[in-house]
Amino acid sequence: MATDHQTALADLESDLLDTPAAGPAAIRGSVLRTGGYVAGVLLSLVSVPLLIRHLGFRDYGRYITVISLVTIVQGVTDVGLGQIGVREFATRTGRDRAGLMRNLMGVRLVLASVGVLLATAFAVIAGYGESAVIGTLLAGIAMVLGVAQGTLAVPLAAELRLGWVTALDLLRQALSVAGIVILILAGAGLLAFLAVPLPVSLVVLAATVVLVVGSMPMRPSFQRVEWVRLLRAVLPFAAAVVVATLYLRITVVLMSLLGSPLQTGYYATSFVVISVLIAIPALTVGATLPVLARAARDDRERLAYVLQRLVEVTLILGVGLGLVLALGADFVVHVLARGHVQPAVVVLQIQSLAIVTQFVGASWQYGLLALHRHRALLLISSIGLGVSICLIFGLVPELEAKGAAIAFAAGELVVAACSFAALRMARPELHFSSRVPVRVLLAFALAAGIALAADVSSLAAGLIGGAVYFAVLVATRALPAELMHALRGWRRAPAD
Hints:
Blueprint: H1 4-14, H2 22-78, H3 81-91, H4 94-125, H5 130-152, H6 154-158, H7 162-186, H8 190-195, H9 197-212, H10 224-258, H11 261-277, H12 279-286, H13 289-298, H14 300-327, H15 329-337, H16 342-370, H17 374-399, H18 401-426, H19 435-453, H20 458-475, H21 481-488
Helix pairs in contact: 2-4, 2-5, 2-7, 2-12, 2-21, 3-4, 3-13, 4-5, 5-9, 7-9, 10-11, 10-17, 10-18, 11-16, 11-18, 12-16, 13-14, 13-16, 14-16, 14-19, 14-20, 15-16, 16-18, 17-18, 19-20
């Protein structure tokens, strides 16, 4: 159990959430988290081509299969407990907080360990081969260490020390890339590459311990009664996370069953891009969860204010990114597919709508999470999944890859709309101004019109569209003053 001094220290640090400095800190944290994610993606581009060439398509396929299996296990066994931990750390104090964190650590470690054993057993039954089976076990152990590290890092996120969260993520990515490159130079085989996450996770875990000592209890707790209470409280949210995970991937699976291999390839090419980009809203909005949770607990007016600004910022970012992606789709597909594959371009342009709804919907969904509306989140995810599946069966036989893209985008639109409706039902006093949305629509229309009228290449159209869009937003003063103030005050902010 944490000492009284440690508990008092943690409470003092988290008091930032009750001050006006919390908003700017969350904004800067969102920028850091998003920038770190993009940097991590770019880092991975260094090792992936080298690894494919070194292992060959056969062994690289086995490598990806094992990593995907462990990743699925991690997602299913986590069931949103990481987000719940951040929310509860931000709203609880003293021994109540310390006890919850210890039990959270215990339940996450047990669930992850059971998942690793099941994944390894599956690898044996599926006949993966000795190297892949042992590799599944090693990568799984690394995943368990990662779960421990993620739980210990909860105070960093809850206290808005997001610079350190980003640094730890980049450390993990950089060490992984370095390990892969070293093993390639050494001529290593498949098993060695599957073992890379193990030492990397140990290093990141050790670094996290140094950062959170004194603000987070280090020992897990295994109190069955507390576990049952914790899991029962978050069960609807856990189910919502599982449904959302299925929803993200189900279009790919059904497309492979209903469409031709060529059309599935068109859709998969677009989906690779979308799956990377739709992770950004969760990072951007997730950084504000501690502020939302504290406001939901203590101050309804502050909650309304924070949500209003979140919606404005996510709308600006989502529309801008969706616009650039739609205009530059031909260039993106050309880079990925090494040729102009027009059907894949159209699919990507259709799915660019999902970027907009993902950004805006994330604000409303995190608002529901802050308000403990777990059942509403489950219902919303289920409705989105149902709409997407029905449209896939109805559209793919006729429109093929374009039909799957429409189904995915429509499902995302329904999820965003339902999230807004559920939030208004939970807090009828919430109202969102139309001032920024109107100016965003104007900026979008002008940017799209000028870019398309320019009759230039796809890359140039995307760059022109993005530049005009941003210029119109600045000229019409659509950018929230809090955002600009937070970014201008970066140098004056205390170090994370």
